[in-house]
Input
Amino acid sequence: MSKGLFITFEGIDGCGKSTQLELLKEDFRKEGLDFIEVREPGGTAVGEKIRNILLDRQNDSMTRMAELLLFEAARAQITEEVIIPALMSGKHVICDRFYDSTSAYQGYANKMGRDLTDFLNVKATSGVSPDLTFLLDIDPKTACDRRTGRGGEEDRIELMGLSYQEKVREGYIELSREEDKRIRVIDATMTREKIYSEIRKQVWDLMS
Ligand code: TMP
Output
């Protein structure tokens, strides 16, 4: 049995990755492909509890190190409990965020340092890496307007504001330069149809 494909979606908050992930899932279903969808942080019973702690706006005293370790704890859980078994059984895995988020948010924007985040990312994932990553690139102001349009309260990380999101975006762009084969940058200001047609093409190219 061949191993499934591991596809991740990344970008700053409000970049539109959930919409694209839905479109890809719809296509996978239509084609009868065997896959699972997961999200980070979360995706397991333990991980969803950690997610609540991480995003709770009342936890404004959380230190940067505590934050980093909680993201990695959730990642360690989902990788061992869900992602590795699925890939090994031949299922494709579509994941909303993975370790690139930690590199961009904690490593770059929070200045925890890439040496530390790279080390913890490898530990938490046992070295499992996505086959393909879509980075939906958008300026923070447009992304923020989209989030506001969706309504709902901002979570602890969204509350950090536009300059923080700008740093995260820079971090992502740097990552995409380092790993230009795996990370495909997509202009997320295009229409959702145009964005998806690029994503679909690249996924199908990889599968064929
Ligand atoms: P979501 O809103 O896309 O579900 O992601 C939750 C938030 O957590 C989002 O603001 C990005 C942030 N995050 C990190 O800061 N580091 C990480 O490693 C992950 C996975 C998410």
Observations:
- The chain has one domain: 6-207.
